Each structure stands twice: as structure tokens, then as C-alpha cells.
Amino acid sequence: MTTAKKIPFYDLREETYSGRIPSLVGRYSEMERLSRLIGRRTNNNALIIGNSGSGKTALALGWARKICTQMRYDNYAFVQLDTEHLYELDNDTEVEKHYAESLSHMPSAILLIDDFGREIYKNMELLRRIHQLYKELIIRHDVHIILTMQQHEYAWLEREYPIFLQTFEILTLKQQNPAEYARILFKKTPVLNGNRHIIVPDESLKEIVTIAKRYPALGQLPRCAVHILDEALSLSISKGEKVLTNSTIAHIVESKTGIPDINISKDSLIDIKYLRHKLA
């Protein structure tokens, strides 16, 4: 974390060059929408909305990673402010003065505040103070503010203080399609596999995504799919297998859900029979 003019912040360009921001697989249309913010004269800030674990932070950081190294954005700073400063604003007017002074010197920038909704949800007094603090930045053409929040937080904000949203493009994250999730797993496989050298067929990656979508109790995609792949690779090593199999994947799912792997396989057969019926 860097400190400049009394504000601690993360330099996302520096974080990118240091390899601390992972690349993003998928979300191509959402990243394109974010890129179109730069140069716009209206609604040139973004509010990314999605449930916990839907990839809001990954999208914002992955997009920043993608564009911050491009020459045409050399004149932009890429800044992430910690939500801790929002909490401090709620308790200390001196801190607010320090931030006001520092923000008045903000250069052309992409400015990310992650989990913004968590701090302002049902706290109208804090929201008004933040709006007052950021009002000059929000209307600047060369500063683009990216905020993230959950759906219920956005619903409250839209109902109680809609004026705050006037210069924001609303980007609601939808669930990625199975092919995109499979590409994410493919990207993660070399890291998870390491020097174990387990062969991971494409069909196994697709099977993990299918199972993860079928059993919501496993968690939200793509995070839960990555965890299943990691555990399945570890189990393959312990069994002395050279290739990741669907039976190994089913065993991992059984241990997490309590559903016998024979039933998981049976579900797959039912899906195949249904698909054949639809194609007939």
C-alpha cells in the first residue's frame, strides 16, 4: 500500500507489474462496457452489482490489470482505496478534511472502491458525507469511479438516495455460461496441478462445472469449481492416478454434499437421456 497526500491507496498498475493481480478469464462484454466509460461525458462512472462471490472484485481488478499497461492509458493513475477510509469518515471529521484536501489533487484516474455498499448500507448520514466528499470527482470527465455492492445494497441506495446514482453506469453481473467457467478452470489447472502432472481432460473440467451448477450447496461459481478441482487433483495423487476421472470428482462431491457418487452419476445419465429425447 502506498501513501500520497495523507491517503493510503493501492497502486493497481504497480500491483499488476508485481504479479499480484490475476488475469480474468471471461466477462468479456462486461470489461468492454467498463472500457467504454473512459472518454464518455455522461455516466462515466460504474457501479458493479452482484451477489457475494459473483466476481465483482475480480472483474474490477481484472479489467484494471488489462488496460493499465496499455500505452493509451499512461496518463491515468489506477488507484484502489480501502473501504476502511469510509468507516473512518463516519467517526472523524478531521479525517474527512484530510481526504477532501487529497482528493482535490487527484490526477486523471481510475478509482476503485470495493465493497462500497457494505459501508453505506442503511447509513444515510455517512452516504451524504461521502457524496459531498466525492461530488467533484464524480463529475470530472477524467476520473472514473468504480464501486461494487450487492443487490440488496443497491436496492436500498436506489430507493433512499437516487441522486447519488445520476452519473453511474449500472453493471449487474449475470451468471457466466458453462463454457466460460470451464475456461476459468483450464486457466487455473497449471497452478493447481503444479508438479503433480495429473492429466486433466477437458471433459473433467466440464463435469466439475456441471456438478457445481447442479448442487448450489457447494457454493458459488467459479470459486467452488476451483476448490473441487483442487481437491480432486489431490485425491488423484493419493490414489496414484495419472488422469483425473469423473469418479474421483464424484467422490469429492459426495464428501461435500452427502449425495452418493452413484446418484451423481445417475443424474448425469438422466441429463443425457433428456438431451437425447430433446434432440430426437
Structural class by helix and strand composition: alpha/beta
Assembly type: single chain
Strand runs, count: 7
Number of helices: 13
Give the N-to-C terminal Cα separation.
60 Å
Let me know the largest β-sheet.
Answer: 7 strands, mixed
Q: Widest sheet: strand order?
A: 1-2-4-5-6-3-7
**In percent, how helical is the residue content?**
40-55%
Question: Key terms for this structure?
Answer:
alpha/beta, single chain, 12% strand, disordered C terminus, 7-stranded mixed β-sheet, 280 residues, 13 helices, 7 strands
Protein described:
The chain has helices at residues 12-17, 28-35, 56-68, 84-89, 93-103, 116-120, 124-138, 151-160, 178-193, 202-214, 223-238, 246-257, 261-279, and strands at 2-4, 7-11, 45-49, 77-81, 109-113, 143-149, 168-172. It is α/β, with parallel strands linked by helices and 280 residues long. Strands 1-2-4-5-6-3-7 form a seven-stranded mixed β-sheet. The chain is elongated, with a radius of gyration of 22 Å. 32% of the residues are buried.
How do you describe this structure in short?
The protein has helices at 12-17, 28-35, 56-68, 84-89, 93-103, 116-120, 124-138, 151-160, 178-193, 202-214, 223-238, 246-257, 261-279; strands spanning 2-4, 7-11, 45-49, 77-81, 109-113, 143-149, 168-172.
